[in-house]
């Protein structure tokens, strides 16, 4: 009897050690920067963020999913263990127990702890992503209107700041938002009419653009040079889905040249040519102007001629 008890003790101790070992390995893997997410396609999180902020949000997501999987595997294990260990073996009714107080406390306290840990890391990352610095390197005012964008490069933060240069989109031309890499960029948003939403998918970030005195402000640093489509992410009316712009990230030197060219009176395509974009590259390459299908007698192709609308 005593021998079998000892055997059971050894078995459970071994299992405990194995469990600790697995948990330790997982922790080491996570802490050593092993990118578990990359092996699983980001667990559904969009890949290819171009800012440190997007990387932090990605890490939070991967950490949360891994934690959820660890809990999930443990719970599934318990379920299957119960199903097999306590399956029906005869007609005799098993001993009927009412409750187990330590268990009750455990499965009340554990989820609360899990929520606290998730909340803690979410609050840290969110505060970090929303942080506004005192001295951004570049401030750009994003003005949204039905159905296009204007980008004003400001001398300093604040709605009364001097506008150094400006780019506005039209039916024929997609507006380009040229910005430098490796610098703190502040976006200050305002709308001329309804609520829009500024969204560049590669920033993994969007924020509503509100009319009136409410001015949403956020900051990012762009790591990589490239050209990325930007969109309106708030249903704002007829041409909402076509309210596109393009983010062009270039080196800080080229950005300064672009800004100087704009300040010297060049149009945006001319300033793009000044910093080395030629031919069609002077215009947006990730999206193109849309056909409004409007003429004197026709509104969006839906009205009969002469209805006066
Ligand atoms: Cu919009």
From TrEMBL:
Domain (Cytochrome oxidase subunit II copper A binding) ranges: 135-261
Subcellular location: Cell membrane; Membrane
Membrane topology: Multi-pass membrane protein
Entry note: cofactor: Binds a copper A center.
Chain positions covered by the region annotation Disordered: 288-309
Coiled-coil residue windows: none
Chief place where the protein resides: membrane
Composition skew (Polar residues), residue ranges: 297-309
Cofactor dependence: Cu cation
SUPFAM superfamilies assigned to the protein according to its UniProt record, in alphabetical order: Cupredoxins (SSF49503), Cytochrome c oxidase subunit II-like, transmembrane region (SSF81464)
Record key words, sorted: Copper, Electron transport, Membrane, Metal-binding, Respiratory chain, Translocase, Transmembrane, Transmembrane helix, Transport
Entry's transmembrane regions: 20-40, 60-84, 105-124
Molecular function terms, GO-annotated: copper ion binding; cytochrome-c oxidase activity; oxidoreductase activity
Protein name (record): Cytochrome c oxidase subunit 2
Organism in which the protein naturally occurs: Catenuloplanes niger
Record lineage: Bacteria, Bacillati, Actinomycetota, Actinomycetes, Micromonosporales
């Amino acid at each position: 009897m005593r021998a079998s008890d000892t055997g059971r003790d050894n078995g459970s101790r071994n299992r405990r050690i194995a469990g600790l070992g697995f948990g330790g390995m997982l922790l080491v893997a996570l802490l050593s920067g092993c990118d578990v997410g990359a092996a699983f396609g980001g667990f559904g999180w969009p890949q290819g963020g171009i800012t440190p902020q997007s990387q932090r949000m990605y890490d939070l997501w991967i950490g949360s999913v891994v934690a959820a999987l660890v809990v999930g595997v443990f719970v599934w294990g318990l379920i299957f263990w119960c199903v097999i260990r306590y399956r029906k073996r005869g007609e005799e009714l098993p001993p009927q127990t009412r409750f187990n107080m330590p268990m009750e406390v455990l499965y009340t306290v554990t989820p609360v702890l899990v929520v606290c840990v998730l909340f803690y890391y979410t609050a840290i990352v969110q505060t970090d992503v929303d942080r506004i610095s005192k001295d951004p390197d570049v401030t750009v005012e994003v003005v949204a209107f039905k159905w296009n964008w204007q980008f004003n490069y400001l001398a300093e933060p604040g709605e009364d700041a001097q506008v150094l240069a400006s780019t506005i989109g039209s039916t024929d031309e997609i507006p380009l938002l040229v910005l430098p890499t490796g610098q703190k960029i502040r976006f200050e948003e305002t709308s001329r009419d309804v609520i829009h939403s500024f969204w560049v998918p590669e920033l993994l970030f969007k924020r509503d653009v509100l009319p009136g005195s409410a001015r949403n402000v956020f900051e990012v640093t762009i790591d990589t040079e490239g050209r990325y489509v930007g969109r309106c992410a708030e249903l704002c009316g007829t041409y909402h889905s076509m309210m596109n712009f393009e983010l062009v990230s270039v080196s800080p030197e080229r950005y300064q040249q672009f800004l100087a060219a704009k300040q010297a009176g060049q149009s945006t395509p001319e300033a793009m040519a000044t910093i080395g974009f030629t031919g069609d590259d002077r215009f947006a390459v990730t999206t193109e102007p849309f056909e409004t299908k409007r003429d004197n007698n026709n509104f969006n192709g839906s009205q009969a001629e002469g209805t006066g609308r």
